[in-house]
Amino acid sequence: MALLFGLGYMGIIFEESLAFNKSGVGLLMAVSLWTIRSIGAPSNDVALSELSHATAEVSEIVFFLLGAMTIVEIVDAHQGFKLVTDNITTRKPKTLLWVVGFVTFFLSSILDNLTSTIVMVSLLRKLAPPSEYRKLLGAVVVIAANAGGAWTPIGDVTTTMLWIHGQISTLPTMKGLFLPSAVSLAVPLALLSLTSEVNGKGQNSADVLASEQMAPRGQLVFSVGLGALVFVPVFKALTGLPPYMGMLLGLGVLWIITDAIHYGESERQRLKVPQALSRIDTQGALFFLGILLSVSSLEAAGILRELANYLDAHIPSTELIASAIGVVSAIIDNVPLVAATMGMYDLSSFPQDSEFWQLVAFCAGTGGSMLVIGSAAGVAFMGMEKVDFFWYMKKVSGFAFAGYAAGIAAYLATHNLNISLPTALAQVPFLHGS
């Protein structure tokens, strides 16, 4: 199974040169791996229950993704994002890099990193023409979304998992992880500011925006759409139902509203949900489905657990184990990885809010930025901007790794010196720096 997973992964990585679509490779890999698992399982019933458990978890993420993409697409069709893009007035490539980075960072701490990436990459299309520079801005969005998601319980699937199961609690996590997360974004931004793509000339892109007019009732759709996205964690807290239900609720409300406000206007069909559904990146969602199902088959077969035990036996310190989890999460999706970690270590070995759990939350969240397929945000960006694996690896991975290492260093430094900065103070140097 590990061999087949490796082959499938190579197929995804070399998508450009093989001319196979990565979504097809991902689906083929998922079905093949589960077929092998069903042959190797103690009985067919065991394999079936494992598969239905995996499918339930994966489909939650896919439904969430489809709901979020559709809401963003409808707001976009109504030019709702003009409200945001009009306020980002700078067209200097370097300043824009920092602005986009920190807007995404704070957005992703309220929304989750996946939704923020979909929203911000849609915005970039309004801010910059298709170019190498826009791809770099998109990569900044991925790094910023993962960094911003790591310091709040609702910003990232993995921190949410640790929060729900009681490994971390809200305020200590935000206090302990804000500074390392900000550092893990500021370092790549500072390094990217020095590259030739960002310092290049002739990147004035004011003309991209001039032609766009906000569609009728665009402000209403923008407010409802953004409200629906922000309401997701509130809905989860109120009802205890999974986040995708909140997302589907938001989509349902927006669907009814857009049907009502464009009633009888046949020329405005493209502003309604059915048309938006035809424009969203369905193949990206199917790629996601394939990758997550493939990884869950390895988890079911106990391969991830063996890997975890191997780490335990060969790595002496907990800081190194947490850091290694982050590096591995760049290759393997961080959700099952954190699930395996939670299975390996319980609250008796590491109590709530201990250094280990906070580091796991930080490392699994930000480590995924090192490769484009290491996080949900990266996969969404890859699908939306048609970026290939090697471009990201060549242009971005080194900077992301530098930020990751600097963030861990910042965490250990502040933790060992017991510096816990008030959030307001922690923001100041970076606001000046940008």
Describe the structure.
This is Sodium/proton antiporter 1 isoform X3. By secondary structure, the chain is an all-alpha fold. Helix content is 75%, strand content 0%. The protein contains 23 helices and no strands. Helix 10 packs across helix 22 and helix 13 runs antiparallel to helix 14. The longest helix is centred in the first third of the chain and has 34 residues, at 44-77. The radius of gyration is 21 Å and the shape is globular. The termini are far apart. Residues 205-211 and 421-434 have low confidence and may be disordered.
Whole-number mean pLDDT:
81
DSSP strand (E) fraction?
under 5%
- State the helix count: 23
Structural class: mainly alpha
Instruction: Characterize the biggest β-sheet.
Output: none
Protein name: Sodium/proton antiporter 1 isoform X3
Please tag this protein with its features.
disordered C terminus, 434 residues, single chain, mainly alpha, 23 helices
In short:
This is Sodium/proton antiporter 1 isoform X3. The protein is mostly helical and 434 residues long.
SSE order and pairing:
Blueprint: H1 2-13, H2 15-18, H3 22-40, H4 44-77, H5 82-85, H6 93-110, H7 113-127, H8 132-150, H9 157-164, H10 170-192, H11 196-199, H12 207-210, H13 218-239, H14 243-261, H15 273-279, H16 282-300, H17 303-314, H18 318-328, H19 334-344, H20 355-367, H21 376-385, H22 389-416, H23 423-433
Helix pairs in contact: 1-3, 3-4, 3-16, 4-7, 4-13, 4-14, 4-15, 4-16, 6-7, 6-8, 6-10, 7-8, 7-21, 8-10, 8-20, 8-21, 9-19, 10-20, 10-22, 10-23, 13-14, 16-21, 17-19, 18-20, 19-20, 20-22
